[in-house]
Design goal:
DNA-directed RNA polymerase activity; transcription; elongated; mainly alpha
Length: 108
């Protein structure tokens, strides 16, 4: 996910529900599409974060030794400031950036 060019707001935005069903004709279908995209974004962000934090993992399992690493803290804070996956997914859906299809409608 490209986080440098992100124009998605980081806080809650009031949306007109009628805008969500314009593309699919069904509000519930739109919500399912948005939720699946949000899950994809969330999984990608989680993998990216774990990949960056795995560099700081130690082989010691001693609970007494907890090292604070400034880089690790900054990486974590950066990901906390990013917009939530749901907000990104809604923005992508409303801007027509999400490819979706319904196989049950195609068979008819």
């Amino acid at each position: 996910m490209n986080t440098t060019k992100n124009t998605v707001p980081t806080s809650t935005v009031t949306r007109d529900v009628r805008q969500l069903d314009k593309e699919t004709g069904n509000i519930y279908e739109s919500i399912v599409i948005i939720s699946k995209r949000a899950n994809q974004i969330s999984n990608n962000m989680k993998e990216e974060l774990h990949g960056k934090l795995s560099e700081f993992a130690s082989s010691n399992d001693n609970l007494e030794e907890v090292f604070e690493n400034r880089e690790q803290i900054e990486i974590s804070k950066h990901y906390e400031r990013l917009p939530k996956p749901t907000l990104v997914a809604v923005d992508e859906f409303l801007n027509g950036k999400v490819y979706h299809r319904n196989p049950s409608k195609e068979q008819s």
